[in-house]
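Mods, move this if it's the wrong board.
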Amino acid sequence: MADLLVVLALALVAAAATAAVLTRDPVRQALVLALLGLALAVLFTVLQAPDVALSQLAVGSALTPLMLLLTVRKVRGHGRRGGRDRGPK
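Not the wrong board. Structure tokens:
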């Protein structure tokens, strides 16, 4: 039974990682990255590493995607304003 849980968790991680690589939109990539972090936290829990799972849950599922979303928002905002302020080329 334990081996089946490990295989299922590994399959979930592989599917989430593949989805993260194949996603083109940065906002969707950040959301898929959060799902990948959650899948890794589940894998670490199944492998009986709860301390690593909690760290992964905090950093990989929350902080990193949040930082990426904020960065995308800031870059897109500068792209809109920067194009108008420069003038003709």
